[in-house]
Amino acid sequence: MSGSQQLWDDVDDYFISQLSPDDDTLRAALRDSEAAGLPQIAVTAAQGKLLHLLAQLQGARTVLEIGTLGGYSTIWLARALPEDGRLISLEYSAKHAEVATRNLARAGMDRVAEVRVGPALESLPKLADENPAPFDLVFIDADKANNAHYVEWALRLTRAGSLIVLDNVVRGGRIADAGSGDPDVVGTRAALELIATHPRLTGTAIQTVGAKGYDGFALARVLG
Ligand code: SAH
Ligand code: DHB
Ligand code: MG
Q1: How far apart are CA 104 and CA 63, in angstroms?
Q2: CA distance 58 to 166
Q3: Which atom of ligand 2 is nearest the CA belonging to 212?
Q4: How far is the C-alpha of 139 from the C-alpha of 185, rounded, in Å?
Q5: Where are the alpha helices (DSSP H) in the chain?
Q6: Which of 75, 120, 121, 201 could lock onto 90 through a cystine, CB 3.0 to 4.6 A?
Q7: Residue 22: what pLDDT?
Q8: How many CB atoms are closer than 10 A to CB 31?
Q9: Would you state the torsion angle of the CA atoms of residues 79, 81, 83, 84, taken in this order, to the nearest 10 degrees?
């Protein structure tokens, strides 16, 4: 662990208590996720609030999430939507999806948010076949090896002005290693290259430190 981790934790504790305190529902979602043995890799409350603000800034009515886990980020995003909004979250693990579905119901978000079980690369074509209204925001946070595929799908399922957010694009700095054989790094570098070169995408990536260590987000705006 980095020698600075304690300081990052202290600052995150301060920011979160000031600006994005969690409530009983969010705490219960994390507690039940942990009790069910899910990995403790949900976004922090500060990051969840960022997703919430980004959805509000988008004026989002529809959100697509890839990678649900226990539904913690899902709740932050769903709470930014109007009552008739719609969030679809794709999750590989039936167990994770079950925990998330319970957490969303307790949060009162089960009318807005829906979890679909299966490998996202199978769920996405099925979703596209339904011709859904374009998603205003897509949050990509699943298996990083497929990040470029997820950005391609996000492009197909969005509109000019939509926002695509990728989590975990830094991973302790490993992203900078052009020769990396780590499939997560390779997949994320391919996603960033797609954002850089695609005529309908413009984006950036920002490094972050905090309770989840040294990592970062990429943001991409879909152009007309
Ligand atoms: N967004 C969540 C964290 C997601 S963790 C939060 O911040 O609260 C990543 C999740 O992606 C895990 O639950 C994992 O099971 C799921 N996942 C992994 N591979 C996947 C795939 N191919 N399709 C869909 N989900 C996948
Ligand atoms: C991991 C995955 C995540 O989405 C995350 O935010 C942190 C860690 C992981 O697979 O280790
Ligand atoms: Mg993540």
Answers
A1: 15
A2: 16
A3: 7
A4: 18
A5: 5-19, 24-35, 45-57, 72-78, 94-106, 120-129, 147-156, 183-197
A6: 120
A7: 87
A8: 13
A9: -140
> Where do we find the tokens 């969303």?
104
**Inter-residue contact 189 to 178 (CB < 8 Å):** yes
Whether the Cβ atoms of residue 90 and residue 65 lie closer than 8 Å to each other: yes
Tell the residue nearest (CA) to atom 8 of ligand 2. 41
**Kind of pairing between the strands at 158-167 and 135-140:** parallel
Could you state, in order of their start, the residue ranges of all structural domains in the chain? 3-222
- The per-residue b/e assignment along 106-140, b for 16 or more CB within 10 angstroms, e otherwise, is bbebeebbbbbbeebbebbeebeeeeeeebbbbbb
Q: What is the pTM of this model?
A: 0.98
CB 223 within 8 A of CB 199: yes
Total count of residues recorded for the chain: 224
Q: Considering only the top CATH level, what class is 3-222?
A: alpha beta
Cβ–ligand 1 contact at 183 (below 6 Å) = no
pLDDT means per 10 residues, the chain with 224 residues, are: 91 98 96 98 98 98 99 98 98 98 98 98 98 99 99 98 98 97 98 98 98 98 97
- Measured by CA distance, the residue closest to atom 9 of ligand 2 is 41
Residue 74, CA distances (Å) to 57, 181, 193, 198, 211 in order: 17, 31, 27, 28, 19
CB–CB of 115/91 below 8 Å?
A: yes
Q: Is 145 in the pocket of ligand 1 (CB under 6 A)?
A: no
